[in-house]
Amino acid sequence: MMFRRGFILFLPRLVGLLVVACCSMSIVYMLACTPKGDNQQFALPRVHSPTVKEGYEAILQEQEEQHRNYIISLKKQIAQLKAELQGRTEQLKNMQNQYPDSLDIQLDHSKPEKAQANLLAFLRSQVDKAEVHSGVKLSTEYAAVPFESFTLQKVYQLETGLTRHPEEKPVRKDKRDELIEVIELAVGSLNKPDGVSKAKPRVYTASDFVEGIYRTEKNKGTLYELTFKGDAKHQFKKIVLFRPFGPVMKVKNENVNMADTLINIIVPLAKRASKFRQFMQNFREMGIQQDGRIHLTVVYFGKEQMNEVKSILENTSKSANFKNFTFIQLNEEFSRGKGLDVGARFWKGNNVVLFFCDVDIYFTAEFLNSCRLNTQPGKKVFYPVLFSQYNPSIIYGHHDSIPSLEQQLIIKKETGFWRDFGFGMTCQYRSDFINIGGFDLDIKGWGGEDVHLYRKYLHSNLMVIRTPVRGLFHLWHEKQCLDELTPEQYKMCMQSKAMNEASHGQLGMLVFKQEIETHLHRQKLSSKKT
C-alpha cells in the first residue's frame, strides 16, 4: 500500500522529467541539423548568452539569410544558362543561314540566285562533313565505310549483289556511267593548264589511269581517289573527287487509302497436298483472319491428289466462312507460268492486285500491306526479295528437337538468306500484267518464266520496286531437279538446291565433321591422362 502511494506521488515528477528530456532532445536535434556557416558553427545558448528565445530567433534569422543567398545564387545560374542558350540559338541561326534547310532551297522560287548560292554552300558543307580532308572518330570497327576499287575493266566489290562475284565488269548502266564520268573528269582536270609551267604540258588519257577507289556515305556523298601514271617511273598523279549529295527534298505528300484494295493470291499446284494444307493454315490466319481483303485462286494441274486439295480448300471455306476463292483444274503437265497466267486472266472483276505465290511460301499480314503500298496501276510493280529458310535438320541438328515453324522464321544469317536471285513472288495490278503480255507460255517445268516476266517489266516504263521484306519467307523443302529439264534449267535448279541447304559455315562443319570428332576425341583422352 505504501509502495503504491509513493509511486502515485512520484508519477507526476517522472512525467515532467520525460517532457523536459524530450524538449531537450528536440532542441539538440534542431541545432544539429542547422546548416553551418563558412566560418562559424552554431551551439546551444550558454548560461551567460542571451535568452533561449533570442537564441532561436538568431538561428532562424541566420537560416533565412542562407536560404536567401542560395536563391540569389540559383537565379544567377539560371540567368547564365539563359544567356548561354540564347548564344547557342544565335549560332544555330547563323549556321542555318550559311547552310540553309533543304526545304528552303526547294521552295524559295522567288529568289533563284539566293537559292543557288544556298545550294552551293550546302554542297560545300557536305565536303567538310565527309571524310575527305581528315578522318572521323568511329565507335567500332563496324562503323567504318569500306572503299571499293576499280580499273578501266573491272570493279572489285565487297557487296557482291546478284552475281555473287567478288569482281565483275560494271554491267549496271548507272555504275558504268558513273565511273566513266569520274575518269573523264579526272583526265580533264589533269590536262587543264596550271598557268605556272611554261613547258609543253603532257596530255593525259584514260589509258594512263592505273586504279581508283571509291566509297559512298549515304548522307554526304561519294568520294573518289584516282591514280594515274606520272611523268617518270615510280611517279604518279592522284586526283581526289567528291560528288556531294544534295539536300533531302520533299517530292510528294499524299494520303493512301488501301481499305478497299483486294489482293488475288494465285497459287499454281500439282500434287503436294500436305504442303497445301500447311499453306492454308498460314492463309487462314494471315489472309482471312488478320487481313480480310483477299481472294485465293488455285490453279491445279492433273487429277492426282486433286480431291484432297479441294477438300482442304472447302473445309477452310466452311470453318472460316470464307467464299472468296476460285479453283481451276487443268488436265496437262505442270507449268508454273501457265498456271499463273491462267489464274490472272480468269479474274473478271475490277482491276485487282495479283500476288503470284507458291505453296511453300509463308507470308504475314504486314507483307500484304507492303504488296498494296508498292504497286500502282500503270506506274509500279513490286518484286520483293524474300527470306529463304535453310534446312531445319541441319540448322537445329544439335538441338533436342526442331522448333515450331513460327519459331523458325527468324531473319538471321544462321537460319537463311535473302533470295535475291529469285523473281517468282511478285505483286502487280492485273492491268499491268495483261498489258505487258503475261508469261511466256512456251517455257515448261521449273524456272525461267519468272525472269522472263521480270525483264519485260524492266524494259517497260513501269517502276520496278525491288527490296527485301521481313514478312515473306520461302520454307525449306527438298528440291528435285528432274532429268526432263533443259541443261540451263537443270543448272539453275542445282544451284538453287545447293544454296537452300545451309550457310557456308554450317556446310563447312559437315564437311569437316570427322576431323572435328577426331580432335574432340584426342582432347578427351588428353584430359584423362592429366
Automatic annotation (TrEMBL):
Family to which this protein belongs: Belongs to the chondroitin N-acetylgalactosaminyltransferase family.
Gene Ontology terms describing biological process: chondroitin sulfate proteoglycan biosynthetic process
GO MF, one annotated term: glucuronylgalactosylproteoglycan 4-beta-N-acetylgalactosaminyltransferase activity
Record-annotated membrane-spanning stretches: 7-32
Protein name: Hexosyltransferase
Originating organism: Illadopsis cleaveri (blackcap illadopsis)
InterPro entries: Chond_GalNAc (IPR008428), CS_glycosyltransferase (IPR051227), Nucleotide-diphossugar_trans (IPR029044)
Gene3D superfamilies reported in the protein's UniProt record: Spore Coat Polysaccharide Biosynthesis Protein SpsA, Chain A
Record's bilayer topology term: Single-pass type II membrane protein
EC numbers for this chain: 2.4.1.-
Gene Ontology terms: cellular component: Golgi cisterna membrane
Gene that encodes the chain: Csgalnact1
Record carries keyword Coiled coil: yes
Location(s), subcellular: Golgi apparatus, Golgi stack membrane
Pfam families, per database record: CHGN
Keywords, in A-Z order: Coiled coil, Glycoprotein, Golgi apparatus, Membrane, Metal-binding, Signal-anchor, Transferase, Transmembrane, Transmembrane helix
Coiled coil: 64-98
Catalytic activity: 3-O-(beta-D-GlcA-(1->3)-beta-D-Gal-(1->3)-beta-D-Gal-(1->4)-beta-D-Xyl)-L-seryl-[protein] + UDP-N-acetyl-alpha-D-galactosamine = 3-O-(beta-D-GalNAc-(1->4)-beta-D-GlcA-(1->3)-beta-D-Gal-(1->3)-beta-D-Gal-(1->4)-beta-D-Xyl)-L-seryl-[protein] + UDP + H(+)
